[in-house]
């Protein structure tokens, strides 16, 4: 199996879930993961650190897409919202996460879903470590305010 | 800056359980990228041409994507590495479909598709979407330019008196700017390094998870044009391609746009 095929088979679903969490849209997640693999296909030579590289592409495409969707929603245009069925407590949490700005949401998802270290997140997003800490602090403060009684 | 809230065990638990639950509900389509890549030409006389008009859509697995991208990279100046050539030689395309160089008359004439095409026509008539004022007068919604966008407009279509059900998103990329964006340079052109010219006339079609093609990007002389259709009905692929080419052809003046 070609390296790219193996990467695809082994990591596609995880990348899809990550993009879904970052964008809230399954359709958008599918498109983003596909675009990520098209980017990988176009890379010359062997792909080093393929899973990490693919994850970085997915995260950055998701942030870009989420900013765009935010504009659409502010203009009250149609936005695809994934119908997920969750217990009330988790549903409230998911709704609060979806209201976070793209960078804060990316940091929270990477921290609590991917278990990424703050330094890894900083590297992935291309932000200074202090900025990532700031995003995380603000995001958690908002979430705590909205979620906890 | 403290991040002590991160250590709140209840919030930590809630977030982890929420993400796991949502991720578990992510629909996972059948394996296979099912991409559609299309090489084509803009058929206006007197302009440089992409000299390899294959006229095929390639649908299939990741290997087939590699084939298509290798074909893109192997254009007039073949810069594909040996492994791409090997992939090209050995990976069979799952399916190929001949597409006409020029889209014919529409086969379906639903109201929404007609409105969709009218909006494209109107956008071109407005001077290639060059003016925020002109766009606003036509009911287009302007999106603040992204770093690599010249501008972007959205419009909606639907049955009279009913909620809009189609979102059309047209983007014109500032001349040359896409070459500064490594993701776009690689994604659209297969260019190994930012700054390399991409072949004019390249048409890139992106399907969604269900294999429906909703996005088309065309490399034009002065930049790129992208069309994305959200909602239903989705125009036939050849009509989407034709519309994208029209937008690209109509975009040639936007380097002087106000």
- What Rg of chain B do the Cα atoms give? 21 Å
Helix content of chain A: over 70%
Q: How many helices of chain B in DSSP terms?
A: 8
Oligomer: heterodimer
Q: Span between N and C termini of chain A?
A: 52 Å
Helix content of chain B: 25-40%
How many β-strand stretches of chain B? Answer: 9
Structural class of chain B: alpha+beta
What can be said about the biggest beta sheet of chain A?
none
Question: What's the helix-strand series of chain B?
Answer: HEEHHEHHEEEHHEEEH
Shape label of chain B: globular
Question: What class, by secondary structure content of chain A?
Answer: mainly alpha
Largest sheet of chain B: 9 strands, antiparallel
Q: Spans of chain B with pLDDT under 50 lasting ≥5 residues?
A: 30-117, 123-167, 174-180, 185-197, 251-258
How does this structure look, described?
The complex is a heterodimer of chains A (149) and B (258). Chain A is mainly α and 149 residues long. Chain A has helices at 3-23, 26-42, 50-74, 88-98, 102-112, 118-125, 129-147. Chain A is globular and about 50 Å long. Chain B starts with 8 loop residues before the first helix and ends in an 8-residue tail after the last helix. Chain B has a 9-stranded antiparallel β-sheet with strand order 3-2-1-7-8-9-6-5-4, sandwiched between helices. Chain B has 8 helices and 9 strands. Chain B is globular. In chain B, α2 (62-73) crosses α3 (82-90) and α4 runs parallel beside α8 (237-250). Chain B has helices spanning 9-24, 62-73, 82-90, 111-125, 132-137, 177-180, 182-189, 237-250, and strands at 36-38, 56-59, 95-98, 141-143, 151-157, 166-173, 203-207, 213-220, 223-231. At the A-B interface, α1, α2, α3, α4 and α5 of A face α1, α2, α3 and α7 of B.
Write a brief structural summary.
The complex is a heterodimer of chains A (149) and B (258). Chain A has 149 residues and is an all-alpha fold. Chain A has helices at residues 3-23, 26-42, 50-74, 88-98, 102-112, 118-125, 129-147.
């Amino acid at each position: 199996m070609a390296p790219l095929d193996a990467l695809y088979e082994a990591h596609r679903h995880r990348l899809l879930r990550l993009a879904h969490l970052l964008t809230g849209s399954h359709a958008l997640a599918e498109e983003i993961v596909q675009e990520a693999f098209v980017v990988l296909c176009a890379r010359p030579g062997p792909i080093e650190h393929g899973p990490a590289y693919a994850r970085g592409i997915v995260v950055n495409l998701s942030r870009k897409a989420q900013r765009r969707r935010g504009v659409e929603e502010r203009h009250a245009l149609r936005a695809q919202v994934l119908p997920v069925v969750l217990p009330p407590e988790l549903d409230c949490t998911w709704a609060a996460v979806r209201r976070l700005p793209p960078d804060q949401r990316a940091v929270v998802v990477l921290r609590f879903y991917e278990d990424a270290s703050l330094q890894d997140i900083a590297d992935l997003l291309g932000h200074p470590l202090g900025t990532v800490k700031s995003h995380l602090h603000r995001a958690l403060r908002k979430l705590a305010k909205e979620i906890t009684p | 800056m403290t991040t002590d809230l991160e250590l709140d065990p209840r919030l930590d638990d809630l977030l982890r359980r929420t993400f796991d639950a949502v991720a578990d509900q992510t629909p996972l389509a059948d394996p296979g990228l099912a991409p559609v890549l299309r090489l084509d030409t803009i058929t206006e006389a007197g302009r440089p041409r992409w000299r390899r008009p294959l006229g095929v859509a390639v649908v299939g697995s990741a290997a087939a994507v590699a084939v298509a991208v290798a074909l893109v990279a192997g254009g007039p100046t073949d810069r594909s590495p040996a492994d791409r050539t090997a992939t090209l030689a050995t990976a069979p395309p799952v399916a190929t479909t001949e597409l006409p160089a020029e889209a014919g008359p529409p086969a379906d004439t639903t109201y929404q598709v007609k409105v969709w095409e009218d909006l494209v026509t109107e956008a071109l008539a407005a001077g290639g979407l060059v003016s925020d004022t002109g766009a606003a007068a036509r009911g287009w919604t302007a999106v603040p330019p992204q770093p690599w966008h010249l501008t972007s407009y959205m419009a909606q279509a639907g049955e009279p008196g009913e909620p809009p059900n189609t979102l059309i998103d047209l983007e014109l990329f500032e001349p040359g700017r896409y070459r500064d964006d490594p993701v776009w340079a690689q994604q659209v052109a297969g260019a190994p390094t930012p700054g390399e010219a991409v072949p004019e006339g390249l048409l890139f079609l992106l399907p969604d998870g269900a294999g429906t093609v909703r996005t088309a990007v065309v490399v034009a002389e002065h930049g790129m044009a992208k069309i994305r259709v959200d909602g239903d009905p989705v125009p036939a692929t050849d009509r989407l391609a034709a519309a994208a080419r029209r937008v690209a052809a109509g975009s040639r003046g936007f380097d002087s746009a106000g």
